[in-house]
Amino acid sequence: MPDFKFEDACHGLVAGIDEAGRGPWVGPVVAGAVIFLSRDIDSFLLAHLNDSKKISIKRREELFEAIVSEAQKGKLCYGIGSASAKEIDEINILQASFLAMRRAAENLCIKPDMALIDGNRLPKDFVCPCQCIIKGDALSYSISAASIVAKVSRDHLMQEMALKYPGYGFEKNAGYGTKDHITGLEKYGITPEHRLSYKPIKELLSQNKY
After folding, report:
1. How far apart are CA 89 and CA 41, in angstroms?
2. Closest Cα to residue 88, out of 198, 165, 201, 186?
3. How many CB atoms lie within 10 A of CB 157?
4. Could you read off the pLDDT of 99-123 as tens digits, one per residue?
């Protein structure tokens, strides 16, 4: 379970940063950034924060609401950033993830002195010094909260995209290559939100199925 150990080892304001949406075939990659300004935090939030992939959809939504509530009380601040499918195609998914992280950090109401980033790669020329933590979303409260912000925000975007492009199951599959998504591609073709550099989409294009 996460705690504040990594934050306590740093000086100043520490932001946890994580992203969601590297694997899907469609839509943006979204990053979240969270700074805990107080340790007097909602006990429900601290008790249930964890890697967003290990938490149910319902619980993620509850945690996101708690994060927003604590932000409104001034106990934390959060930022959201994204990089579009077009940007992913232009600069690759890793660099697009770093771009989304930068944008999330820039959207914080307070500039952090240090950033803890989930994973094993660090972005270059970031907005502040940063440290990567493997599986950080299960070890650091800040990164865990950022993972919730990123995942829930992206899920909401995909639900909106499902209304614009019905028939692909985006509201359920979040853009991953599920049976519904593949059926939608075969029936309706590729949308402007698909990642053209991804192998399944490139194969469809090469077969002149779009």
Report:
1. 40
2. 198
3. 20
4. 999 999 999 999 999 999 999 999 9
| Domains of the chain from N-terminus onward | 5-206 (3.30.420.10)
Question: What are the backbone angles phi and psi of residue 197, rounded to the nearest 5°?
Answer: -85, -10
Cβ atoms of 94 and 121 closer than 8 Å: yes
**Residue tagged 């944008």 (tokens):** 103
User: Is-contact 196 89, C-beta < 8 A?
Assistant: yes
Answer for the pair 184, 172: CB distance below 8 angstroms, yes or no. Answer: no
- The arithmetic mean of pLDDT across residues 159-186, rounded, is 96
| Tokens (6 digits) for 196 | 């053209």
Long-range contacts of 56-59 (CB under 8 A, 24+ apart): 57/155
Cβ(42)–Cβ(94) below 8 Å: no
Phi, psi torsion values for 82, nearest 5 degrees: -145, 165
